Amino acid sequence: MLDRLFRRRREARAVADFYLTIAAQARRPAFYRDLGVPDTLDGRFDMVVLHVFLVMRRLKGQGAAAADRSRLLFEAMIDHFEKSLMEQGVGDSGVGRRIKTMARGIAGRIEVYDRALAAEDGDEGDAALQVALDNNVYGTVSEVPPQRLAVLAAYVRREAAGLEAQSLESLMAGEVRFGPPPGAG
């Protein structure tokens, strides 16, 4: 019984570390400085969600262990957002409501990103991905230069392909490799 308890704790810690590695990529300054992603709570939230989605997408359909890892990764992200809200002084009664709203927003983003990436890489697929990024990552920006949307969309496609090339074993071990953020061009 104790062995199972310790194994769960080790797994939770490993997934939390895995999440933090993914979130570190989403927080790289180049996204905000060079691509104009809003350096706000909303902008950072959307970049973290985007990067966690990319990893979850890679784990999708890879068996029960990968599905469990994906679920735990999602839970680690939600836990992190909940702790952030509490650190910002949101009262206990407001945290649950905000987390539910966030979770619905995350589910919508996952769905739209997944559909956009499933579309053929070409004019139609790129347009769908750019619209999804414009509505979410740049949702609080009144006018986004088309070049920035194109560059971020290309980055997302590149990273999705890069994750596909990474072994499932390395991802399950908590190892993830992302390429560098693009410049705005």
Automatic annotation (TrEMBL):
Domain Ubiquinol-cytochrome c chaperone: 34-178
Top-level taxon in the UniProt lineage: Bacteria
InterPro entries reported for this sequence: Ubiq_cyt_c_chap, Ubiqinol_cyt_c_chaperone_CPB3
Similarity field: Belongs to the CBP3 family.
Record-given protein name: Ubiquinol-cytochrome C chaperone family protein
Organism: Azospirillum himalayense
